[in-house]
Amino acid sequence: MEKTDIFELHADLCKTLSNPKRLMILALLAKKEMSVGEIAEVIAVPLSNVSQHLSLLKAQSLVQTRKDGQTVHYSLSDRRIIQACTLIRSVLLDKMKERGQIAREIDPRYVVAAV
After folding, report:
1. CATH topology for the 6-110 domain
2. This prediction's pTM
């Protein structure tokens, strides 16, 4: 069995999370299961772009799918990723307050209650 470096895996996951739209998608999916079309409508991004983002999230096992006829529904595969993202945002907001910076108000659609 090949030894896998946990830091390489961590870095790959962080690369996937480095896009604001993908973070928005995860925040939406933390609230409920959604189709590509529903996600595209909320984040105002073309369907093809949303599909690409979801493909990357699925490759990292961050989302899972459920097919209902022709519609594919996406959901989080592990809620702990939301806990991690929320913790990081909390640290960033604290740092901004320390520096006297004001964070732009977060759209309530992307706010996830503490998990």
Report:
1. Arc Repressor Mutant, subunit A (1.10.10)
2. 0.83
